[in-house]
Amino acid sequence: MSRRNGEPKYIMLINEVRAWITSEKLRPGQQLPTENDIASQFGISRQTVRQGINELVHEGILYRIQGKGTFVQSTSRERTPATNVIAVVTTYISDYIFPSIIRGIESVLSPNGYSILLLSTHNDFNEERRDLMTVMEKQVDGLIIEPTRSAIPNPNLAHYFTLIDRNIPIVMLHTTYPQLPIRCLRMNDVESSKLVTQHLVDNGHVRIGGIFKNDDRQGVFRLKGFVETLMNHRLQIEPTFIHVYKTEEKSSVAHQYFNKFKSSSPDARPTAIVCYNDEIASELVHLFQTNGILVPDSVSVVGFDNMQPFTRQINNKGWITTIEHPKFEMGTKAAELLLEAIQESRKGASGRYGEDFVFPSILVPGSSTDSIRESGSTSHKDSSSQPVTAVETP
Amino acid sequence: MSRRNGEPKYIMLINEVRAWITSEKLRPGQQLPTENDIASQFGISRQTVRQGINELVHEGILYRIQGKGTFVQSTSRERTPATNVIAVVTTYISDYIFPSIIRGIESVLSPNGYSILLLSTHNDFNEERRDLMTVMEKQVDGLIIEPTRSAIPNPNLAHYFTLIDRNIPIVMLHTTYPQLPIRCLRMNDVESSKLVTQHLVDNGHVRIGGIFKNDDRQGVFRLKGFVETLMNHRLQIEPTFIHVYKTEEKSSVAHQYFNKFKSSSPDARPTAIVCYNDEIASELVHLFQTNGILVPDSVSVVGFDNMQPFTRQINNKGWITTIEHPKFEMGTKAAELLLEAIQESRKGASGRYGEDFVFPSILVPGSSTDSIRESGSTSHKDSSSQPVTAVETP
Questions:
Q1: Which of A217, A269, A375, B250 suits a disulfide with A261, CB 3.0-4.6 Å?
Q2: Spatial CB neighbours of A92, under 8 Å, sequence gap ≥ 6
Q3: How far is B263 from B267, CA to CA, in rounded Å?
């Protein structure tokens, strides 16, 4: 073994093993001598041998088989044959932002020769488990999945461990399970929520309420950004103005919130409300409008996800003030990152996962917000109420 | 209003208001003119007036009273008189790391004239709620609190909102609720777990298992660091080797894990196990030893929190390999940060909260780990098995 001055011994070993492989003294699939044999052959410690071998395993040049030993990786590691099927598992399929996301995924995967196995969880752990079992059965080449109730402990972790162990590339949408080192494409929910709450503060609102989902991490982080903005401006943080809900309450939460305040005097209710998403915001606007509380004149309402034109129009002239969601672009980007991960995995690259891909937070001002009058109700909108950070959608 | 060239109008307004206060034209507690009056007086838009006032509120120079208007802050904002009582709420009081943490807190607060109201939650939401109500009743000057089951949605958020709204300084121990912008003092649990798992990999282990708590964020992040390390080294991630548990299972989890493997052949069980903490690790070592499975000869075990000498000795000669926990120092630092926050709050500073205070991750090698023999069992310890990143405790 040739040793350059000052070079650590394990680096020399690495170079030696590389030379064996280049010279085909060791061919793909062949077993390395034992650590003890290598150690005594080169007069180095077993610890040093292990350090060198770990590094080469890490680089994907060698691999270990439990109880057998260490082997030379083939250029494309032997694996189950490609099925050209990618599983896409979202909470919902045909509603809200999901058709656009799925179209985005499809627009990249189809031209690359993949078909899509489309599954949904309805944000339910049992359905997620069933979906994960289907994914394993079908031996898909990769998985794009949106976590289910990411803010509570997941009972299906063992299935994810199996997928990771089988080296099936995974990317996640909107958030990740905090236990799992899996790459995700997401919004910055804290920043988005600060942006939309700041918009209300800039419009003079001081009694600001909110409705947040509490069983997924998006809702948890949106609540944090909301509270942080109120704290920064030393505005009132009134517990009765802040309502958290879980998935099961989704269809009733806007009613619950409205009922709390429908008989209150204008002074005793919030003048502006941050809603978990445009779906909830749209329902709440409808309830206010049909009960004689005018939006944005008496109350401003904001949401997330920019669902115009599918949400209700405000006074037949505009949409809900909201935060942009990349939808189709999130789909295309997710598919691209998954295809990259599949390529990497075929090349036998290490199991390291990439950084989260975070989309920018962009405020989309609409007709559901207005600046407040001194009296506590809101004045007519004037163009100067739009902060410079806001970007109009084209 | 004097305007320097190019200076934004709201900055000029800010300087003008500062001048009013310095010249005592406006005294502490006095009300500002309405936004409309200021706008017409200076010929600027109400939006600009609001921007300037927001900034001064943010700086703690002005404050708003809902429905009344904007006022000049007194140098020390009027607040409930100091009680010189600090509440300290931990999950446990007399066990494990908690006596040391509480001694650390006491060592700083006592000399500063504070007495301590000591409460515990036993990681139970009902007890946490009762404690928070006591904290509000006693009108404490500040709160040091360890979150309860931080990995599941907290039902007591409204009480935290009330405390934040009352401007009661809070610092958290070990982790924070992800919904709440509250400063915390913590370990880097992902990094610590990577360090302790890497120690096992460096010792040649390839079949590594783990026991992790799933209802607090420390356990969630330790699981993540563990899985990430196995992925990086392309080691087996065997679902049956990884066990998650919740608080109620605390006293039985080591037994459960041991029972899974007590009848397995050595080839079918992990050769090393990462435990959520030294308490679990100590129990597991005891179960192995008393059933003829030698630690570290047949199985290596690691923990977190460095509870020597309170955990079981290994073969009467050393302790469990673990990650350092600052204990007393965490207590003193928490008390210092809280006292700073109380000072800031008395000066009427803004509600911004500081960055998390993160203690360094330090591996403490012990006698419960050893490097593995080719056969799959472990060899006798040799000093070269200690990685350079490890730091011996004094």
A1: A269
A2: A98, A120, A122
A3: 11
Q: Is A232 in contact with B384 (Cβ distance < 8 A)?
A: no
SS3 content of chain A, % helix, strand, coil (to 5): 40, 15, 45
CB B38 within 8 A of CB B32: yes
List of residues 6+ apart from A78 with CB closer than 8 A: none
Q: How many C-beta atoms lie closer than 10 Å to residue A37's C-beta?
A: 12
What is d(CA A245, CA A210) in angstroms, rounded to the nearest whole number?
Answer: 11
CATH number, domain A9-72: 1.10.10.10
Radius of gyration from C-alpha coordinates of chain A? 27
Q: Which residues pair with B275 in a beta bridge?
A: B211
Assigned superfamily of B85-182+328-359: Response regulator (3.40.50.2300)
Closest to A227 (Cα-Cα) out of B158, B61, B172, B171: B158
CA torsion angle A277 A280 A284 A285 (round to 10) = 50
pLDDT tens, position by position, B30-51: 888 888 888 888 889 988 898 8
Q: Which residue among B64, B237, B267 places its CB closest to the CB of A165? A: B237
- Quote the pLDDT of residue B389: 37
* pLDDT in the model for residue B107: 97
Q: Where are the domains of chain B?
A: 9-72, 85-182+328-359, 189-324+362-385
Question: Are B115 and B85 contacting, i.e. CB atoms less than 8 angstroms apart?
Answer: yes
Contact check, Cβ <8 Å, B224/A60: no
Among partner residues A67, A233, A384, which is closest to B54 by beta-carbon distance? A233
pLDDT for A3: 56
pLDDT tens profile A143-155: 999 999 999 999 9
ipTM: 0.77
Alpha-carbon distance of B213 to B195, in angstroms, equals: 18
Using CA coordinates, name the residue in chain B closest to A193: B179
- Taking each helix axis as running N to C, give the angle between helix A189-202 and helix B46-58, from 0 to 180 degrees, rounded to the nearest 10: 120
Q: What is the pLDDT of residues B345-364, one digit of tens each?
A: 887 665 667 899 999 999 99
Pick the CATH number of A189-324+361-385 from 3.30.1340.30, 3.40.50.2300, 3.30.70.60, 3.40.50.720: 3.40.50.2300
